[in-house]
Specification:
Elements: H1 2-74, E1 93-94, E2 100-101
């Protein structure tokens, strides 16, 4: 009778052992998957960090250019020799012909 009980206990423990081994394998597979995802996310983080730094540099440069242009506007330094664009920007309107007019179309002679 005691031998039967030991055999039943052994079979039950053997089944539990198999279940625990399977759970262990599943957990190892999950850990491997998490490691791979973690590595991928770390790589993406590095790329995004570099991109953020580049954009921050560009943003800072543009902000400084904007401040410089605002200062030049406020201090009348817009027409300095160092121009930003090659085309001239004069405060006049064209009257339709090739001669610029600062106050609109020229009066017609009477």
């Amino acid at each position: 009778m005691q031998m039967e009980k030991l055999m039943e206990t052994h079979i039950a423990l053997d089944e539990k052992h198999k279940i625990v081994l399977q759970e262990n394998e599943d957990l190892k597979a999950r850990m491997d998957k998490h490691k791979a995802v973690s590595r991928q996310l770390s790589t993406e983080q590095v790329v995004l960090q570099e991109s953020l730094q580049k954009e921050s540099k560009v943003n800072k440069r543009l902000s400084m250019q904007n401040e410089e242009l605002l200062w030049k506007l406020q201090n009348g330094d817009v027409l300095s020799p160092k121009r930003l664009s090659p085309s001239p920007s004069f405060p006049f309107q064209s009257s339709g012909n090739s001669t610029p007019s600062f106050f609109g179309p020229a009066p017609t002679p009477r």
